[in-house]
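[job 4471] stage=fold_predict status=RUNNING
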Amino acid sequence: MWLDQWVVLLLVPLAIWILASGLDDLFISLAYLKGGKQFQWPSAKQLDHAPERRIAILVPLWKEHKVIGQMLDHNLAAILYQNYDVFVGVYPNDEPTVNAVNDAAGRHTRIHPVVLPHEGPTSKGDCLNWLYRGLENFESQKRVRFDVIITHDAEDLIHPDSLRLINWYSPAYDMVQVPVLPLKTGIARFTHGLYCDEFAEYQSKDIPVRKRLGGFLPSNGVGTGFGRTALERLASTRQGRIFDPECLTEDYQNGYQLHAMGHTQIFLPLRFVNACPIATREFFPQTLRAAIRQRSRWVTGIALQGWQKNGWNAPWPQTYWFWRDRKGLVGNLLSPLATLILFWGLARFLYLTVSGDSWPDTPMPDWLTNVCMASLSISLVQAAIRIRCSARIYGWAFAAAVPMRMLWGNLVNSAATVRALWQFWGAQRQHSTPAWQKTDHVYPGQIAEVDRKPRLGEVLVRMRCISTSELEAALLSCPPGRRIGEHLMLSKKISEEHLYQALSTQAGIPLGAPASHEVHRPATQVLPAEAVRRWKVIPYRVSEGQLHVLTPEIPSQELVHDLTAYSDLEFRFRLVRPTEFESMAKQYLPPGRAAAA
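[job 4471] inference complete, writing structure tokens
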């Protein structure tokens, strides 16, 4: 059959490429299975007593008004660190985001909005550079100096211990990378599940092996702590810019250049505390179109611009990592053809088996059969390792669909590579740089459901309000039915202020009564008196499709479920002390509703 002959001809170069790439991946997998030296983690006591270096978190934004308020409120309540500030970059022509950031700054003194001097969007690197200038202006005015710079995005869930770990390792390393992992979604969401699988493997296997074998550490873009001195030295090579504004993956470029300049880098391997990984968590694109859009930016920045800016002129160990980062330019384009031939072969086998016909007279040469079998064996090993990595984080039920998501990933990556090549070629033809295309972000609606919340006692110990021995004694003496926080306060071990600070941290919601200008009187009438009376809540503002609500208690899932029956708006909660709640009720609610509350 003439089609069989064409398939064999196509299979020769394809099989050779797949085997070569597969052997490369197998080398990394064997190094991963072999393992390395045990990572030296600091103890909880060491972290508690480590001097806190001054840290600045940079958050670049463009059209993030729907998520940035919740992101800032949650993270500032959850972070178990004191000596830090957050600089948030906004464009003057993005008024909703400017307003959302200003509102957040009104609630948190740590937040410092930085309005760029030009309209956007430009690039993430450009926004970060202007954020850095805003940071320098702040330092000049306050006569302070930040020791560490951390980058984050608008959709990030920062782990409570993230800053403490970066603080611990930053005196010895110029770049500290905290792992990044997608949040778990339903198994039916194949595109987001693909991100879960890939990041689980990348953060568990590829990056640790890369560091162990002496490769440079590409920044993940978020959860990366840069030493100030290293950034200043890097900026001196770019006319004062700490990030390359023309590069679509400025994080990757910084990682390579810092390594090339001799700066030390460390990746904190995945570690689980109370069954939860210490990592930056976020949602990634959940639709095919959004995933292709984001991945085409990665391909352009890492493979094409990386090739253009760095070439292959590097020490041979780094050249190997260039090869691994760029081989997708070929592999992604060939993978759909390989998948098509695989399904064609399976269909041909089934047809011949059912029909009883003999195999064609032009079978594959023995060597080509051996190459295909070797490649298949390597692919099975790689799939097994990815399943293992995914199961470690998301569970075996979720990981069972890894093989199907791998096939889906071939199509997604192929489409993203075609798009990246087309855009890059178009930009080169016009003598311009490829356009930065931002990913649309979402933020978890119920933070408490993302991971296991720390217990209140754990938070109080981390805040140094009580010692571990005092907590253990309180747990033994606490009467049945009494909450531990209430018991500690009645025992005069902690103050009401400490209790509510800990509750705010535990729940990841902001603390404290809003300023009078934040309260909109019409909004206080949104919920019926029945709901106000039953749940002790006061709505006080409607903004960007969200209803902001005061409560003296941590909101339960039952409360949220009940309130959603009264409004289609997304609920945002703010924790207040009982005395503040009573004062707000008397001031803003009618006499009958105030008495009910």
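[job 4471] summary: The first strand starts at residue 55 and ends at 60.
[job 4471] exit 0
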